[in-house]
Amino acid sequence: MIVNIGEVATFPSAEANREQSAKVLEEAAEVFAAWQQFDAKGRAMYRQPFLKKLLSELADLVMACENMLSGVNQYGLRECECEGVALTKTYLHGLLLAAAEVSEAVRMWNLFPSDRTLEDLLGTVEELERYACGVISALGVEDFTPYMLACEKRNRWRGRYE
């Protein structure tokens, strides 16, 4: 399945620093927590609000990744092709580990700025975004654009684009 992420409006003052890597970790943890709540609801009629929360957290994670990339003048995925994955605890743990790898790559890039450490940083962010796309795809969402627009709207309301 090809997942359309759409355009992502990054924050004007985005940086690839420790604070942004902490934001990526925080958002990944929130995705995991939202997935746990969603997964715990067995009947479809009770899952809908938790699905909405999970998709909202995934949009926040993609936004955090895109802000990280914007901080090093790069651009992330607009769409990605994902194979159907089973949403298991193991897969979501992989997402959390990928977020931790982003944090470590940012630390190394800030300590030793070079083409090599930048390449590592870009690779880890791309891997994390692919995990996020895998979750989005597994939920059956092909057009993720409305969720990204809602995320942007929330952040504009919070004054993050000023």
**SSE pattern:** EHHEHHH
Number of domains: 1
Helix percent reads 55-70%
Coarse shape: globular
Largest sheet: 2 strands, antiparallel
Mean pLDDT: 89
The largest beta-sheet arranges its strands as 1-2
Helix/sheet category: mainly alpha
Radius of gyration: 15 Å
The rounded distance between the terminal residues' Cα atoms is 36 Å
Show unreliable segments.
none
Instruction: Tell me the total number of β-strands.
Output: 2
Strand content: under 5%
Count of separate DSSP helical elements: 5
Protein name: MazG nucleotide pyrophosphohydrolase domain-containing protein
In short:
This protein is mainly alpha-helical and 162 residues long. The protein has helices spanning 18-40, 44-70, 89-111, 115-138, 145-157, and strands at 2-4, 79-81.
